[in-house]
Amino acid sequence: MKKALIIVDVQNDFCEGGALAVPEANEIIPYINSLMEENDYDQIVLTQDWHPANHKSFASNNGKKVGESIILNGVPQFMWPDHCVEGTFGAEFHQDLNREKVTHIIQKGKNTEIDAYSGFQDNNHFMKTGLDDFLKYHDIQLVEIVGLAMDYCVKFTATDAVANGYITCLHFNGTKAVNVKPDNGKDAIFEMIQKGVTVLG
């Protein structure tokens, strides 16, 4: 069975000192590096938030405060600080992430009007990113998922992987939650399990 490792959004803005830093994010990078070193993956894919500066998920572009919500193209949209703007240092992968064995990069969130948490598609399910096509082209059947953040982009990438027919595992030690609300991370784990994701301790 061919397997892939999907590393979600390990970018400077989500790590320590970043515009949207996930608590303890930097602690998962050595674990992710060890997975790549110790396992023989057929493909290793990075997803990368890659937003235009005028992206509608940014509070600054809507006259809103971070943490407020709006309806964006028919779906609720949390208002984030500006982050992972295309071509900026914040959008770059963290320097400690070993990328020697990476075989493919998927950029997401490029459409100004629609956010994209999942590595597979935007939040409205209008446009696919090409990740599913890439994995199926390479006959991948099992995906292991790590990265940031557990309660947003990791959760949606994992549940979409299940929906697209992949045996899907989440490495609990390879992810951290934003926890906008204290139980968001815990709730995300329960939701992933309910939808068929296997959580590896």
TrEMBL record:
CDD domains: nicotinamidase. The keyword Metal-binding applies. Transmembrane segments: none annotated. Its EC number is 3.5.1.19. PANTHER family: LD05707P, PYRAZINAMIDASE/NICOTINAMIDASE. Belongs to the isochorismatase family. This is nicotinamidase. It comes from Chryseobacterium edaphi.
